[in-house]
């Protein structure tokens, strides 16, 4: 019995000694690390070096952005004329086809005005101007009157775009405005044109106003009859710095930018947005031209965060080395 009691007592003493040793080790280790600077993301809250966050930036520039309107149009000849016969009857001969070139006075068709049992005589239809046949002519055997259009002749060397602008935009259109024209046949290739004429009235049926645009130069690949997509530039907005809209951080209907400072840290700055056109925003208050703004990588940023600009707009500045005196800890009282 005494032997069993002695064994139990020994086990208890060993356990007490193990716990005591562990506590002493922990306290000693904590004391050694008391003056160590905590690390963590970017060194925030400690005296360790800050880790720089890689970002892309953009430079704010004072520039003009121009509003625009999209509409559709048709390529037409600047000068064209409809051809009528001088007398009614049946078309017995057609000497031209779509695209044919003609000279003034050329015979383009013959009309038989005679009635059954009467004398047969062909009446010629002639071209009133030089040009090309731009609409499909009537068919042989077709009955026509003096008011029937036989065909249409136009000058295909001088083309224009006829387009219609919705009524809500008519206050913004003016003679001389530029437009980019794209055609289905040529993908994203752009052809430049200018507004030369604006209808004085709005069409009550379509609530649109017709405009005419002339190409700024001759484009051989553009043909009459093509469908055109018109991007008409209307109102200019200038006088403020402009940056991509992706740079803004929105919070409770307020907008902020992370502006990069000379020491490669950022400051979160409240700004006022102006006109937004095609992915670019004016900044009417809070930003100056020439300042560098974070465009990508702002999700992990905070006030004073260190950044490394991989766009090359700002040269990276290393953090200053820590004060060696601080690393030794506070000096004992009474000593200087």
Condensed summary:
The protein has 336 residues and is mainly beta. The chain is 10% helix and 40% strand.
List keywords for this structure.
Beta-barrel_RND_2; RND family efflux transporter, MFP subunit; OB fold (Dihydrolipoamide Acetyltransferase, E2P); 10% helix; mainly beta; 336 residues; efflux transmembrane transporter activity; six-stranded antiparallel barrel; nine-stranded mixed beta sheet; conserved putative lor/sdh protein from methanococcus maripaludis s2 fold; Elongation Factor Tu (Ef-tu), domain 3; 3 domains
How does the SSE layout of this entry go?
Layout: H1 2-32, E1 53-59, E2 61-62, E3 65-77, E4 80-83, E5 89-94, E6 101-102, E7 107-112, E8 123-126, E9 131-133, E10 143-144, E11 151-154, E12 159-166, E13 178-183, E14 191-198, E15 208-215, E16 227-237, E17 241-244, E18 249-251, E19 254-260, E20 266-277, E21 280-285, E22 292-296, E23 307-309, H2 324-327
Parallel strand pairs: 1-23
Antiparallel strand pairs: 1-22, 2-17, 3-12, 3-16, 4-11, 5-7, 5-10, 6-9, 7-8, 9-11, 12-15, 13-14, 13-16, 14-15, 17-21, 18-19, 19-20, 19-22, 20-21
Domain YknX-like C-terminal permuted SH3-like: 242-308
Protein name: RND family efflux transporter, MFP subunit
Family: Belongs to the membrane fusion protein (MFP) (TC 8.A.1) family.
């Amino acid at each position: 019995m005494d032997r069993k009691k002695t064994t139990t007592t020994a086990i208890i003493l060993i356990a007490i000694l193990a716990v005591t040793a562990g506590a002493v080790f922990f306290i000693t280790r904590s004391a050694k690390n008391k003056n160590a600077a905590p690390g963590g993301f970017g060194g925030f809250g400690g005296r360790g070096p800050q880790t720089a966050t890689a970002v892309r930036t953009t430079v704010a520039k004072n520039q003009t952005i121009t509003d625009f309107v999209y509409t559709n149009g048709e390529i037409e000849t600047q000068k064209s004329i409809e051809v009528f016969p001088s007398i009614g009857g049946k078309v017995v001969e057609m000497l031209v086809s779509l695209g044919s070139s003609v000279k003034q006075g050329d015979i383009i068709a013959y009309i038989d005005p005679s009635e059954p049992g009467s004398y047969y005589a062909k009446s010629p239809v002639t071209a009133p101007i030089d040009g090309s046949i731009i609409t499909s002519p009537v068919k042989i055997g077709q009955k026509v009157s003096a008011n029937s259009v036989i065909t249409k002749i136009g000058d295909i060397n001088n083309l224009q775009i006829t387009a219609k602008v919705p009524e809500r935009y008519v206050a913004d259109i003016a003679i001389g405005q530029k437009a980019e024209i794209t055609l289905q046949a040529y993908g994203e290739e752009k052809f430049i044109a200018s507004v030369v004429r604006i209808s004085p009235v709005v069409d009550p049926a379509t609530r649109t106003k017709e405009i005419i645009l002339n190409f700024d130069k001759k484009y051989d690949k553009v043909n009459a009859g093509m469908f055109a997509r018109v991007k008409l530039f209307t109102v200019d907005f200038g006088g403020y710095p402009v940056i991509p809209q992706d740079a803004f951080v929105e919070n409770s209907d307020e907008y902020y930018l992370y502006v990069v400072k000379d020491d490669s840290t950022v400051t979160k700055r409240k700004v006022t947005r102006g006109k937004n056109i095609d992915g670019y925003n004016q900044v009417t208050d809070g930003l100056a031209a020439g300042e560098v703004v974070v465009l990508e990588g702002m999700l992990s940023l905070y006030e004073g965060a260190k950044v490394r600009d991989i766009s090359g707009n700002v040269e990276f500045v290393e953090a200053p080395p820590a004060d060696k005196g601080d690393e030794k800890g506070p000096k004992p009282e009474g000593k200087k």
